[in-house]
């Protein structure tokens, strides 16, 4: 079953060339209507990453790309945003919402230009959608906003592909291997001791070295993903090279390069588990 877009997004052809069932079909309707609020600066690569995983779920999903109303990205053309994105409050018929991360780990939330608008989205989301999926920075921001859990800065950027454990049985972790690896990449995170102890939250998937990966609020049907199942094989490598070129002196990504040889990229096996997690979320809470 296809992923359907009502606007002719350029990445559709790229994903079709990979053999994925994703199509521009303005008059078709999906069984699930999903909003995708894209906060990442490089919109087009984020579109490719997450639409790939959604297409690999095998579900009939109608995806609407959403944008903030009071903030204009500097690294994506205004023409792209105008042609392919809708204002976040323009759709009242969506079943679920995904909110991406953003490279803002070194900023206090109140320093973020669109923080007040994002707080409005957080507050409205519980009323407007069956379920919301918060990703990476957005997950940490939601922990802060909804539960008062502060964020801690790390001494070094967390970057690598880490082993995880499924901590408890839940429909969202069904079919996920007991021991699974996922990429992480961040400078800051919700304080882990408060996250694990908070009465409204349940940690489903955890890494000894990277902390929580998947967390749920089962009453409000919120899913929080703190790693990056959408990353391609070279994403961590490109981040590492970018940080070096910017003079940041980063540490190499951990447990990532094959045989610890810089540039020897792994197979992105984590994508299959990311697609399975999305499928479970949609079937269990969104649909």
TrEMBL record:
<keyword id="KW-0486">Methionine biosynthesis</keyword>
<feature type="active site" description="Acyl-thioester intermediate">
    <location>
        <position position="136"/>
    </location>
</feature>
<dbReference type="GO" id="GO:0008899">
    <property type="term" value="F:homoserine O-succinyltransferase activity"/>
</dbReference>
<feature type="site" description="Important for substrate specificity">
    <location>
        <position position="185"/>
    </location>
</feature>
<dbReference type="InterPro" id="IPR033752">
    <property type="entry name" value="MetA_family"/>
</dbReference>
<comment type="similarity">
    <text>Belongs to the MetA family.</text>
</comment>
<dbReference type="GO" id="GO:0009086">
    <property type="term" value="P:methionine biosynthetic process"/>
</dbReference>
<feature type="active site" description="Proton acceptor">
    <location>
        <position position="228"/>
    </location>
</feature>
<keyword id="KW-0808">Transferase</keyword>
<feature type="active site">
    <location>
        <position position="230"/>
    </location>
</feature>
<keyword id="KW-0028">Amino-acid biosynthesis</keyword>
<comment type="pathway">
    <text>Amino-acid biosynthesis; L-methionine biosynthesis via de novo pathway; O-succinyl-L-homoserine from L-homoserine: step 1/1.</text>
</comment>
<dbReference type="GO" id="GO:0005737">
    <property type="term" value="C:cytoplasm"/>
</dbReference>
<keyword id="KW-0963">Cytoplasm</keyword>
<feature type="binding site">
    <location>
        <position position="242"/>
    </location>
    <ligand>
        <name>substrate</name>
    </ligand>
</feature>
<keyword id="KW-0012">Acyltransferase</keyword>
<feature type="site" description="Important for acyl-CoA specificity">
    <location>
        <position position="105"/>
    </location>
</feature>
<feature type="binding site">
    <location>
        <position position="157"/>
    </location>
    <ligand>
        <name>substrate</name>
    </ligand>
</feature>
<comment type="function">
    <text>Transfers a succinyl group from succinyl-CoA to L-homoserine, forming succinyl-L-homoserine.</text>
</comment>
<feature type="binding site">
    <location>
        <position position="185"/>
    </location>
    <ligand>
        <name>substrate</name>
    </ligand>
</feature>
<protein>
    <recommendedName>
        <fullName>Homoserine O-succinyltransferase</fullName>
        <ecNumber>2.3.1.46</ecNumber>
    </recommendedName>
</protein>
<dbReference type="GO" id="GO:0004414">
    <property type="term" value="F:homoserine O-acetyltransferase activity"/>
</dbReference>
<dbReference type="InterPro" id="IPR029062">
    <property type="entry name" value="Class_I_gatase-like"/>
</dbReference>
<dbReference type="Pfam" id="PF04204">
    <property type="entry name" value="HTS"/>
</dbReference>
């Amino acid at each position: 079953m296809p992923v359907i877009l009502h606007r002719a997004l350029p990445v559709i052809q790229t994903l079709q060339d990979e053999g994925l069932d994703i199509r521009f079909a303005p008059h078709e309707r999906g069984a699930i209507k999903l909003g995708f609020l894209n906060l990442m600066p490089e919109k087009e690569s984020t579109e490719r990453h997450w639409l790939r995983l959604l297409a690999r779920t095998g579900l009939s999903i109608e995806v609407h790309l959403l944008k903030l109303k009071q903030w204009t990205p500097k690294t994506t053309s205004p023409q792209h945003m105008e042609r392919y994105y809708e204002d976040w409050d323009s759709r009242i018929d969506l079943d679920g919402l995904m909110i991406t991360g953003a490279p803002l780990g070194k900023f206090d939330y109140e320093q973020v230009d669109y923080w007040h608008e994002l707080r409005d989205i957080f507050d409205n989301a519980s009323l407007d959608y069956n379920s919301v999926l918060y990703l990476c920075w957005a997950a940490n921001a939601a922990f802060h906003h909804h539960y008062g859990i502060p964020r801690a800065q790390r001494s070094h950027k967390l970057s690598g592909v880490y082993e995880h454990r499924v901590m408890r049985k839940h429909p969202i972790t069904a079919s996920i291997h007991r021991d699974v690896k996922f990429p992480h990449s961040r400078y800051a995170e919700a304080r882990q001791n408060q996250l694990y102890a908070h009465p409204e939250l349940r940690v489903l998937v955890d890494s000894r070295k990277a902390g929580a990966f998947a967390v749920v609020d089962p009453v409000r049907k919120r899913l929080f993903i703190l790693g990056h199942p959408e990353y391609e094989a070279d994403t961590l490598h490109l981040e590492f090279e970018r940080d070096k070129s910017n003079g940041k002196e980063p540490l190499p990504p951990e447990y990532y390069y094959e045989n610890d040889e810089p540039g020897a990229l792994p197979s992105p096996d984590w994508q299959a588990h990311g697609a399975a997690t999305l499928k479970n979320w949609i079937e269990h809470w969104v649909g």
